[in-house]
Each structure stands twice: as C-alpha cells, then as structure tokens.
Amino acid sequence: MTTLSRDQVREMMGEVLAAQGKELPANDDAQLSEIGFRSLDFSELALRVEDELDTELNFDAPGLRSIETVGDVLTFIDQLQQAS
Amino acid sequence: MPAGAANRIVTSRYDGPWSGLALEDWPAASAYLVDSHLDAARAVWAHATQPERETLVASAGRVDAEQAEQFRADGLALVRADGITPATTERPADAGRIWLLTSGSTGRPKQVAHTLESLTTISSPQPPRMWLCPYATGAYAWWQVVTMSLQLPGQDVLFVEPGELDSWPERALAAGVTAASGTPTFWRQALFRSGDVLAQIPFEQVTLGGEPVDQGVLDQLREAFPQARISWIYASSEAGAAIAVHDGRAGFPANWLDRHTAGRPVLSVVDGELVIRSDKAARGMDGDIRTGDRAEIVDDRVLITGRIASDEINVGGSKASASKVRAVLLAHPAVAWASVKGRRAPLVGNVVAAEVVLAPGATATDAELQAWCAERLPDYSVPRRIRVRDEIPMKETLKSDV
Question: Could you give the CA distance from residue B385 to residue B343 in angstroms, rounded to a whole number?
Fold first, then answer.
C-alpha cells in the first residue's frame, strides 16, 4: 500500500489548523494543547490521510498511547498506515 | 365509471383517455410487475372499472424472484409484459383491495393494504390541469396522482418513465404541463440541471413531498414560479396523506397540533417524533402511527427535519443532528444540495461528513463551507470532511437519502 511521508502528513496537519486560523509550529515537540490541536482535529487529519490514500485505516490497530505533541501525532498516523 | 374516465393520460406509448386503455382478461387477483407507466395505468383502469379485482402494481425491477413467488403463494397471479404466471394458492380475490409496497428502507419492501378510496385524498373539484407524474409505478405518491386523475374531471397526467427523468422539463413543456409533484431532491435537481427550461413551464401548482421540505427549496421554487401555488404534502403509505401546507413556508402551523377536526388526521409530537392518527391510514394502522420522523417546534411552526434513527451522529459523546447541519449548509448561497452523514473516525468514533453540490456558476471551497458552519454550529457539528459532487444524486424513489 502507498503511504504518506511524515512531511506530507505534517503538511495536512498544517491545513487542518490553517482552516481554523491557527499555525502549526515547525517543532515536533510542540504541545498539542498549546497549539489548539484537539481530538476532532486529529480525527479530521486521519480522514484526510484516508482520502489521500483512498483506503480505510485500521483505527483499532495501534495500542493505547499518549498523544501530546505534534511528533506523537505524526508517529501515530505513521503506525496507522503501517497497520492497514 | 370513474368521474375522470375522460381525462387524458400521456405515456411514452399512449396518449388518450383512461377509458381508451386496452384491457385483457387478467386473473381477478393479480400482481402487475410492470416495465412502463402504460402497463401500470392499464392495471389501474381494470381495477377502477371491475369491482371484484385485487391489485398490486410495482416496477418489475423492485421485486426479486423470491418475493414474486411469495405473491403467488399469497394468491396473486403475476402479470408481466411477457405473460401471466398463475398463483400457486387458489383463493377468491379480496374485492377492491390494493396492495402497495413500501419503499423498504430496511430489507425487502413490505406490503401495505389500501383501497382506491383510502388512496384518494383529493376529492374536491380542482381547476383543469396537466400533471407531471415522475414517481415510480406503484409508489404511494404515484397512486396519489393516479387516483386524483381517476376521480376528478380535468386532471390530465403526463407520466415520465425512470429513464426519461433527465429530460422531463422538455417533455413537460411540450405536453403543456401546468402542475407537478416531486420530492425536494427532484425539484433541486431540475432547478440545478434545467433551470432555464423549467422557468418556461407555466406551472400553476408545484407540489413537494416524500422528504423533509426545507425553506431553501421552497424559496427557490417561489422565485422560479412566482405565479404557482406551492404546496408541500406529508404522506406515507402507512399514514396516508396527513398534512398539506400551501403558504410557502416550511413546516406546518403549531396550532394544528392535537386538533380534532372531522375527516382530518390528528397530529401530535411525542418525544420529538411526529405521531399521526388518520382515517386515510392503511388497514391495520388505526391507532397512533409513530412516523419515525423528527418534529421540532420552532416559534409558530412544526418543522419535520429528518428521520429520527438516522439523524443523530455521535461525535465523541456529543450528539450532532445531521438535519441541522444540512440546513446550515443549504442556507449557504453557493450550495444547491447537501447530504450529511456520520463517518467513522479515530478518537471520537464519528465525525460529521458532508457532500454538497454547488449552485450553477457558484464557487465555494470546503474550507469556506466549514467556516460558514463553524459560525453557526457547535464545534462537534461542523463537517470535518466536505466533498463537492458534480451532480445531485437521485434514486428511483426520487429521493437522495439525505
């Protein structure tokens, strides 16, 4: 299956925030709570990835984790892609 | 002889009065599985002029082999274009009985028992009109147009086959149509596709039904047809025709609720659901009929906004209403049609997703539409994915499952 690179997903994440007038910092360590990236935004990002790949991601596959930073989001999306 | 025997009916293969239709020697209890409105009209005329008959009319494509066998086992012969298959159970016909197949949103269509009388809801004299009937043969709305034409002099009908739906405005213009009944999806699609031809049709009566009717489509029709009476009708094969509104506004007056008037159905809202008690209901539906339709009282109106079962989208524990989101999208000047559904997503379970069709010549990006929604809806109700389609989708029922 084709997968999206971390940079491509980062760009999409920027688009989700831009639609709300927010900016995505360049730093992967930036806290989601500080930049205002919420659960719904994360869900939207996952669906954007699905639409781009034209496939369904297996949301149940990766185990429980803590997603607190921009880097955590990118890693989680990467794992979703690998598991599907 | 029915009072409308001389009314003109027009199909792709026939142009003449009801009384000119050729009948054959069909079994008294028959299920007509038809490929055309002409064959359906012949079945109706036979039923209307031969009181001993028991009749079911349905598009052949709607009935699978197993259901057709069940009809035979229930005592109905199958009448198709290529011949008659006798019933496998012999019994006398239930004189006057008409069977309708409901639209069957879940699984196989079920049969609902009516008579010509219970299907006839317009009985007062009407101005002479040529009606357009775009409905699928045998549907409740189809019977409404058919029974009106059978019973009321001056009510002619142009039937449009499913394959001709794309070009109906041209046919209607050529045939002299002055009245038409269709779903909001049907009207939206026509305005979207053929607004210029449509505007030339001298409509005196425009009727909507079969789906929730919103103010947006009523306003568009009012603008396109300033002279026409614009009505919306709430009807179902189970409850019969229960509500008719002619003031150009969505919903019906709240003071109609719980009102007891002879010959009129009693309307109530129970736990947000429209409940109807009607003497035009199908057999076996004599008590309160819970319609499954969401009813909301806003100021002096009762708005029917969607199906209860399919309206709610659970977004991380918050309940988004698909019909409310849809109403907000439809209020955007660039949006001609919208459909809103839940879409499975991580973390929150579902998010709101939408499909839209833009008005001809209009432009709007998904980000602009999201921003429009964000100004008017709670966060969890804002569509997170918006897909722009080229065309308004429509099923054989003239609905689009919005």
Answer: 9
Helix or strand (DSSP H, E) at B40: helix B37-49
- Terminus-to-terminus CA distance in chain A, angstroms? 8
DSSP 8-state secondary structure symbol assigned to residue B18 = G
Compute the distance between CA of residue A19 and CA of residue B398 in angstroms, rounded to an integer: 35
Q: Give the residue from B164, B174, B220, B224 showing the smallest Cα distance to B198.
A: B224
Reported as a single tens digit per residue, the pLDDT across A21-74 is 899 999 999 999 889 998 889 889 999 999 998 888 876 555 545 678 999 899
The interface predicted TM-score of the complex, written ipTM, equals 0.86
User: Do you know the residue count of chain B?
Assistant: 402
Instruction: Give CA–CA dist B143/B138, Å, rounded.
Output: 6
Q: Do B351 and A42 touch (CB under 8 A)?
A: no
Q: Where are the alpha helices (DSSP H) in B74-154?
A: 116-119, 140-151
Question: For residues A35 and A22, is the Cβ–Cβ distance under 8 A?
Answer: yes
Least CB–CB distance from A47: residue in B343, B370, B380: B343
Chain B CA closest to residue A39: B347
Whether chain A has a CB inside 8 Å of the CB on B348: the answer is: yes
**Which CATH number is associated with domain B309-389?**
3.30.300.30
Interface test with B, best of A16, A47, A52 (most B CBs within 10 A): A47
Domains of chain A: 6-83 (1.10.1200.10)
Q: Which residues of chain B make contact with A39, given a CB cutoff of 8 A?
A: 316, 347-348
Closest residue to B347, CB basis, from A42, A48, A57: A42
CA distance A27 to chain B (A): 24
B317 in reach of chain A (CB within 8 A):
no
B351–chain A Cβ distance below 8 A for any pair: yes
CA distance B188 to chain A (A): 28
B385 and A43: CB-CB below 8 Å? no
Cβ(B380)–Cβ(B345) under 8 Å? no
List the one residue out of B237, B184, B176 whose CA is nearest residue B208.
Answer: B184
Task: Give the pLDDT score at B106.
Answer: 42
Tell me, rounded to whole angstroms, the distance of Cα B357 from its chain centroid.
Answer: 21
CA dist., res. B239 & res. B27, Å (int): 30
Domain ranges of chain B: 309-389
CA geometry: angle B15, B20, B26, nearest 5 deg: 115
**A to B CB pairs, distance under 8 Å:** 42
B158-180 confidence digits (pLDDT tens) = 999 888 887 899 999 999 999 99
User: Is residue B384 within 8 angstroms of chain A, CB to CB?
Assistant: yes
In which residue ranges of chain B is pLDDT below 50?
104-107
**Type and span of the H or E element at B269:** strand B266-270
- Collapsing DSSP to helix, strand or coil, B200 comes out as coil
